[in-house]
């Protein structure tokens, strides 16, 4: 008798439950896809509207930078060595003078950037000519300097001990042949010295009539007691910047309508046209974060975020990264041309004469850096 055959086990077919996910075949592991890597955007070598490469030109802090007299390079002060340098876009630095200027607190460059007024913590002030390597001592009670377009004159506030001895003055750069222009009296702190490139205005005085809350008249002061029409400005903390020809002006102010954050304005600023065509540029930044490429084009570093009330404490904005905008003053069109690589907060913008290079200060490190505009 043959033994009984072993029972055969029949496994039921595997089917996907209705409405569920498909079930993997027996013995076959469920395939898994490798994680997808997210590629970071690559910084462009020139400003094309997005993330843009920046290059450090100094290893340490660089202060009081300006375009060099040849229009190609940048001059700056190194606080560690107390010396002034000129640096090329490739980072090659050379001394402007072998002299040491320890603890320089403020520097005002001439229009040609071949000489500068250097101020120290003890209120001593000198004019230094980097071409002749000679210096002259200026009065300690002079402040708020500005050079004429030719660099052959300076304007300043002469602040005597008594209010009767406070004047707006003009002199040679070495302080000689000084003459008084306007009595300042108790209003010295309301006067901002800013010599226009066309020579017509040497200062602005916030002493005009109040036209409502935070709306006032700013009086332009000329070198020959000219009687200009006042500028009407909306807001506080008037900060002007002249176009290269001196015919127009951008300025920043802030008020309640802007949540006390700075707003840029534009106006004609020459002769009888003073104050004409005044309008808002709809850009929230300070005028001193802008630089002119020509009379109709200005580049501005615009903070990505601004806290309410930052106009009163501008230092708060140094924690916010900036984007670079180009504004056409003829059409009022503005375009974002670059996001500086590294989430940088930047200031002291300088544009080379051929408009190819933007120099700026990195507010976090204090380094002088550059970006290619074209």
Please characterize this protein's 3D structure:
With 374 residues, the protein is mainly β. The chain has strands at 51-52, 55-56, 63-67, 74-78, 83-87, 93-95, 106-109, 115-119, 125-129, 134-138, 142-147, 154-159, 166-171, 179-183, 191-193, 203-205, 215-221, 231-234, 236-242, 248-254, 263-268, 279-280, 290-294, 297-303, 322-328, 334-340, 346-351, 357-362, 368-372. The strands form seven sheets. Strands 1-26-25-24-23 form a five-stranded mixed sheet, with no helix packed on it. The relative contact order is 0.12. Residues 1-26 have low confidence and may be disordered.
Summarize the topology.
Blueprint (H helix, E strand, L loop, with lengths): L50 E2 L2 E2 L6 E5 L6 E5 L4 E5 L5 E3 L10 E4 L5 E5 L5 E5 L4 E5 L3 E6 L6 E6 L6 E6 L7 E5 L7 E3 L9 E3 L9 E7 L9 E4 L1 E7 L5 E7 L8 E6 L10 E2 L9 E5 L2 E7 L18 E7 L5 E7 L5 E6 L5 E6 L5 E5 L2
Parallel strand pairs: 1-26
Antiparallel strand pairs: 2-29, 3-4, 4-5, 5-6, 7-8, 8-9, 9-10, 11-12, 12-13, 13-14, 15-16, 16-17, 17-18, 19-20, 20-21, 21-22, 23-24, 24-25, 25-26, 27-28, 28-29
What is the total domain count? 1
Please name the CATH topology.
Methylamine Dehydrogenase, Chain H
In whole angstroms, the N-to-C terminal distance is: 100 Å
Output the strand order for the largest sheet. 1-26-25-24-23
What composes the largest sheet? 5 strands, mixed
Taken from the alpha-carbon principal axes, the silhouette is: globular
CATH architecture: 7 Propeller
Which key phrases capture this entry?
4-stranded antiparallel beta sheet; mainly beta; Methylamine Dehydrogenase, Chain H; 374 residues
């Amino acid at each position: 008798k043959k033994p009984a055959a072993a029972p055969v086990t029949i496994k039921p077919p595997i089917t996907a439950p209705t409405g569920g996910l498909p079930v993997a075949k027996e013995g076959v592991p469920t395939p898994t896809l490798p994680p997808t890597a997210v590629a970071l955007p690559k910084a462009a070598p020139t400003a094309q509207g997005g993330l843009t490469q920046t290059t450090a030109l100094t290893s340490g802090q660089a202060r009081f930078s300006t375009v060099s007299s040849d229009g190609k390079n940048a001059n700056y002060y190194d606080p560690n060595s107390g010396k002034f340098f000129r640096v090329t876009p490739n980072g090659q630095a050379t001394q402007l003078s072998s002299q040491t200027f320890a603890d320089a607190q403020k520097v005002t460059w001439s229009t040609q950037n071949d000489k500068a007024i250097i101020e120290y913590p003890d209120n001593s002030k000198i004019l230094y000519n980097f071409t002749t390597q000679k210096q002259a001592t200026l009065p300690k009670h002079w402040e708020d300097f500005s050079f004429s377009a030719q660099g052959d004159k300076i304007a300043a506030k002469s602040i005597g001990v008594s209010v009767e001895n406070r004047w707006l003055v003009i002199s040679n750069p070495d302080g000689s042949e000084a003459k008084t222009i306007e009595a300042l009296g108790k209003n010295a702190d309301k006067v901002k010295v800013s010599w226009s490139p066309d020579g017509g205005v040497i200062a602005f005085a916030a002493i005009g009539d109040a036209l409502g809350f935070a709306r006032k008249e700013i009086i332009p002061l000329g070198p020959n007691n000219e009687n200009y029409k006042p500028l009407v400005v909306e807001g506080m903390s008037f900060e002007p910047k002249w176009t290269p020809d001196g015919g127009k002006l951008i300025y920043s102010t802030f008020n309640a309508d802007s949540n006390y954050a700075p707003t840029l304005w534009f106006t004609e600023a020459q002769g009888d046209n003073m104050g004409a065509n005044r309008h808002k540029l709809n850009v929230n930044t300070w005028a001193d974060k802008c630089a002119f490429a020509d009379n109709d084009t200005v580049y501005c570093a615009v903070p990505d975020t601004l806290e309410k009330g930052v106009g009163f404490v501008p230092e708060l904005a140094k924690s916010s990264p900036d984007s670079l905008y180009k504004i056409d003053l003829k059409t009022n069109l503005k375009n974002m041309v670059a996001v500086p690589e590294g989430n940088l907060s930047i200031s002291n913008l300088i544009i080379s004469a051929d408009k190819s290079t933007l120099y700026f200060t990195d507010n976090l490190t204090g380094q002088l850096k550059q970006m290619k505009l074209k």
